[in-house]
């Protein structure tokens, strides 16, 4: 890593940046690129949950159920938030948990990546292995999740609308929003 004073985006590296939003919005793929752009480590909460549990998320859901997964997810995110600043991609339901949301809002900058449900449908329909979609219509699940989770996501520090554009466009939009937010947060002399 470069010295913070020399890094052109050093001010954006003061806090962990947590990406929240519905499945398929690109939290992991945008997060990896955002971490590279900011010269920060990248962490994926789902991967960290799997490592901590010693099994995959589908296995956790099948063997232990969603409540056990959410409890493990909450504990893993709390641990990650105590680490030095990084970019953290969370699962779609993480920020909907009041305790997890409060921790994220206190210790990090939460960025809601928001996209049109039709776009998310196209993305999640192409990918197998999402336990919450098993045996269900993906659009129905997305609508249910949007209705249930958008109020919680709305508590994020920032909302960045993403579309069917290259990830670099979303990264640039997040960087611009973070820059504006962090500079407006600084006390004036």
Throw out a few tags for this protein.
Rossmann fold; 5-stranded parallel sheet; about 190 residues; 5 strands; single chain
The strand order across the widest sheet is 2-3-1-4-5
Q: Structural class, from secondary structure content?
A: alpha/beta
- The rounded distance between the terminal residues' Cα atoms is 30 Å
CATH class categorisation:
Alpha Beta
Question: What Rg, in angstroms, do the CA atoms define?
Answer: 16 Å
CATH topology: Rossmann fold
- Morphology call: globular
Binned strand content: 5-15%
Helix content: 40-55%
Taken together, the total number of domains comes to: 1
Name of the CATH architecture: 3-Layer(aba) Sandwich
Low-confidence segments? 1-8
Mean pLDDT: 88
Note the main sheet: 5 strands, parallel
User: What is the overall number of helices?
Assistant: 8
Describe the structure.
- The chain has 189 residues and is an alpha/beta fold.
- It has a single domain, classed as Rossmann fold.
- 52% of the residues lie in helices and 12% in strands.
- A 5-stranded parallel sheet has the order 2-3-1-4-5, sandwiched between helices.
- Helix 3 (57-64) crosses helix 4.
Topology record:
Blueprint: E1 16-20, H1 27-38, E2 42-44, H2 45-53, H3 57-64, H4 66-81, E3 87-89, H5 98-107, E4 108-114, H6 117-125, H7 138-153, E5 158-161, H8 167-185
Parallel strand pairs: 1-3, 1-4, 2-3, 4-5
Helix pairs in contact: 1-8, 2-4, 3-4, 4-5, 6-7
